[in-house]
Each structure stands twice: as structure tokens, then as C-alpha cells.
UniProtKB/TrEMBL annotation:
UniProt key word Cell inner membrane: no
GO biological-process terms attached to the record: lysine biosynthetic process via diaminopimelate
Keywords from the named record: Decarboxylase, Lyase, Pyridoxal phosphate
CDD domains: PLPDE_III_Btrk_like (cd06839)
Domain Orn/DAP/Arg decarboxylase 2 C-terminal: start-end pairs: 21-371
Keyword Lyase: yes
A GO MF label: diaminopimelate decarboxylase activity
Cofactor section: pyridoxal 5'-phosphate
Modified residues (N6-(pyridoxal phosphate)lysine): K51
Name used for this protein in its record: Diaminopimelate decarboxylase
């Protein structure tokens, strides 16, 4: 039996840790980072966007290779710190930061707070004044342009993210009076799941140009430019992974030209999905196999409460993540298996037409490329099932990096209010 993750048999992993289970391969995680690091302009720092996978051990592996962190909540800030990411290599971003979060940024000394609105800029100024400090602030800009080709466009339209380019260019009087804010840079994030090298390159060129214009008009020194990222991985039929060599050939000249004009500016790209997706497998076990009106269903012990991305929201026709039968030899695949979870909703469909061998209860299925936007981007409390366990395989050993939620973990968070009606004991048999 040859189905392994990081050299360990999936059957053993499932037996030891139970299912449903996320398994990450540390080698794949490192390989993805290194492949990009090798070809990317050496002066461009890579920040890991914890949003894609907030596990502290995943973050620690990436940090050990030199990644910084891009965080968007107090918990993510703490996780990055616990993973060993230095505050100077961390940026904090998000359209609705709390005063507590801004204050934590000031207290820990993050490299920059990425500011997303004028109101927030005033708030950062006030909070920094209270601490008698000067906040290092990067302005997130919502550019007037949009570059087609990302799957979820975050700019060039009315957005809660960032400050409109036109407003930023006219903001010199507004920022002049800020005593406790020092503008140090520009951030733009164009969108996610970019799979075309040209699109990434055009984004980069235009963002670098925009950063120069904003800094010049507002009269500050560009210490930092974050060109976003949003590099994708192929999930679906007809998609192909980015050619990193080609990507680098297209973006590096733009970075080099920029560095020639601004030799001291720190450049960053921030990536979540690209770094973690391929390393993760969502391992589920088939509970029931049934036929309904001519279609074959495999009902598993997992579901979209752990893997919402597999639902394929936003696609006209549902597109399926790659799913494989793991852990036993099998005969020819038959077309069009529907793989579902155990939730009580028809939307709980991991795949609608995956060719799989004849399945039987007890079989293990792996949803591949699932290391990004898994449980943290899914309704894990649906049916009160909770978060699945997560295991990292490194150097041939499995490490439990996230405990499975137990029913008690969920029930104990709830409170039965004092005036709750008494239950006659007879009603419970
Ligand atoms: C979500 C997000 C990221 C990470 O996006 P990926 O597509 O996972 O790389 C980076 N930056 C910002 C601002 C984001 O909102």
C-alpha cells in the first residue's frame, strides 16, 4: 500500500488520529516556499498571510525559512509571535481593526499597521499619542485600475478595503496634521487565485508605480511597498499551476527597476494560499455508500463545515477539488461519484462528479490541495461538530498540531440561562 503523506501511510494516520483529519506535509510546505524564494527578486520579502491557515506550527515552518507574517486579528498577531515571527517582520491589516488591536500593534512594535480608511488613520494617531509614540503606518490603496484575472477582485471598485487612489493623491492636507503617525509605505492587494503570470506581473508594475505617485504627492519617504500577492494554485480541471520561472522573469525586472530608484525601500509580497494549499490533505472516511435516483453517493464523516472551499461557491457549475481514494488498491474508476459530508444540507457536497473506484464504507478519501482556507474559513460549528484535528508530518513523524474539538468543548461554551424552564424529569427517558 503506497498512499503516504510525508512518508507515513494514510491508513496509519487515520487510525492514530481519527477522521476527519487535516494532514500537512512539512516538506511540501517548505518546497513551495523555497521554489518561490529561489526565483523571486532577492530583495522582496515574503509575508505569510495567516488568514489562509492560522495554525502556529504551519506558521513556524514558514518562519524558519525566512517568512514574515501578515495578520488581521489579535489572535493571528499572537499566533505569529508564538511561531517566532519577529514583530519587525509582521504587518497588521484589516478594514475594521479594534482599538485593542491597534494598541497591541503599537505595544509589540510591528513593522507597520496597514491603514484602510481616514477614520482609522485618525484613530491610530490618537492611540499612538496616548502611548506617546509614533505609529508606523502603511496606507492601503484601492487603485483606480483593475487587472483582470484574479478570481476575487479586491480593487478598482467600491470596496471597504483601503483608501481610494484618488482620495489618497489629494490627501496631503489631511495627513499633514498627524503628529503621531508616520507614513512609511503603500500596500495594495489586487485579489486572490491569480493563475496567470502576466496578471501578477502587471499588478506588480502598476502597484509599484502607484506607490511612487502616492508617496510623492503626500511627501513621505517610501520605506515599504507591499505589492500584495494572491498567487493561486490549480484546483480544478482546466487550471494549471503558475510557472514560477516565467513569473519571476516578468516581475523581477519591475522590482529591480524600482530598487534602483529606491535602494532602501523594503519590498514585500504577501501570500497565503500559494504557500500552504498543496501541503494539506483533508482526510475523511466513507460512512455510507448509497444510490439515489441513479446517482452514487459516498457519505463521509467530514464535510464542508471543515472545507467550505470545496463547495465551489461562486461557480456557475460546481467544480470539484481533486479527491482520491487512499489506502487501498482499487479497480477502474467509475465516473460521477458524489462525495458528501454528514451535514443536513444538500450544499454539503465535497464533489459532484469525481471519478472514483467503487467505494465502500470505511474507505479513506483525501481532498487534495486543501491546506489553505480550510477549517478557518468554514462554518465549523455547523451541526455543532467543531474543528477537526490537524497533523503535521515532518521528517517522518506525525505531530498533532490542533486538537479535535470535543462535544464538551462546544457545549461548555453555551450557558443555560437562569430562568430556563424546568424540565420534568419524566420527559427524559
Ligand atoms: C486574503 C488576503 C491575502 C492572502 O491571499 P491569498 O490569495 O491566500 O494569497 C493577502 N493579503 C490580503 C490583504 C488579503 O485579504
Amino acid at each position: 500500500m503506497t498512499d503516504t503523506i510525508g512518508g507515513l501511510a494514510v491508513t496509519d494516520l487515520a487510525r492514530e488520529f481519527g477522521t476527519p483529519l487535516y494532514v500537512y506535509d512539512a516538506d511540501v510546505l517548505r518546497e513551495r516556499y523555497r521554489q518561490l524564494r529561489e526565483v523571486l527578486h532577492p530583495e522582496v520579502g515574503i509575508l505569510f498571510s495567516l488568514k489562509a491557515n492560522p495554525n502556529v506550527s504551519i506558521c513556524a515552518v514558514l518562519r524558519s525559512l525566512g517568512a514574515g507574517a501578515e495578520v488581521s486579528s489579535l489572535a493571528e498577531l499572537l499566533i505569529a509571535g508564538r511561531a517566532g515571527v519577529a514583530a519587525e517582520d509582521t504587518i497588521f491589516l484589516g478594514p475594521g481593526k479594534s482599538a485593542q488591536e491597534i494598541d497591541a500593534c503599537l505595544a509589540t512594535g510591528v513593522h507597520a499597521i496597514v491603514c484602510e480608511s481616514w477614520g482609522e488613520l485618525a484613530e491610530i494617531d490618537a492611540l499612538a499619542a496616548r502611548r506617546d509614540t509614533v505609529a508606523r503606518v502603511v496606507l492601503r490603496i484601492n487603485p483606480s485600475f483593475t487587472v483582470k484575472g484574479s478570481r476575487l477582485t479586491m480593487s478598482g471598485k467600491p470596496r471597504q478595503f483601503g483608501i481610494d487612489e484618488e482620495q489618497a493623491l489629494e490627501a496631503a492636507p489631511r495627513v499633514a496634521g498627524l503628529r503621531n503617525v508616520r507614513l512609511i509605505g503603500v500596500h495594495v492587494y489586487m485579489g486572490t487565485r491569480i493563475l496567470a503570470e502576466e496578471v501578477a506581473a502587471e499588478n506588480t508594475t502598476r502597484i509599484l508605480d502607484l506607490a511612487e505617485r502616492v508617496a510623492e504627492r503626500l511627501g513621505f519617504e517610501l520605506e515599504t511597498v507591499d505589492v500584495g500577492g494572491g498567487l493561486g494554485v490549480a484546483y480544478f480541471d482546466g487550471e494549471r499551476d503558475l510557472d514560477l520561472r516565467r513569473l519571476a522573469d516578468l516581475v523581477n525586472p519591475a522590482f529591480a527597476a524600482f530598487r534602483a530608484r529606491h535602494p532602501r525601500t523594503r519590498l514585500f509580497t504577501e501570500l497565503g494560499r500559494f504557500l500552504t494549499a498543496e501541503s494539506g490533505t483533508y482526510l475523511v472516511r466513507v460512512r455510507q455508500v448509497k444510490e439515489s435516483m441513479g446517482e452514487w453517493f459516498a457519505v463521509t464523516d467530514g464535510g464542508t463545515h471543515h472545507h467550505m472551499a470545496a463547495v465551489g461557491v461562486g461557480s456557475f457549475v460546481k467544480r470539484d477539488f481533486p479527491i482520491r481514494l487512499l489506502g487501498r488498491e482499487a479497480t477502474e474508476p467509475a465516473p460521477n461519484w458524489r462525495v458528501t459530508g454528514l451535514l443536513c444540507t444538500p450544499n454539503d457536497t465535497l464533489s459532484t462528479h469525481t471519478p472514483l473506484p467503487p467505494l465502500r464504507p470505511g474507505d479513506l478519501l483525501g481532498v487534495l490541495r486543501s491546506g489553505a482556507y480550510g477549517p478557518s474559513a468554514s462554518p465549523v460549528l455547523f451541526l455543532s461538530h467543531g474543528h477537526p484535528a490537524e497533523v503535521l508530518v515532518d521528517a517522518g513523524r506525525p505531530y498533532l498540531i490542533r486538537d479535535r474539538d470535543r462535544p464538551a468543548d462546544i457545549v461548555d461554551r453555551q450557558r443555560l440561562y437562569e430562568r430556563a424552564p424546568e424540565v420534568p424529569s419524566a420527559s427524559i427517558p
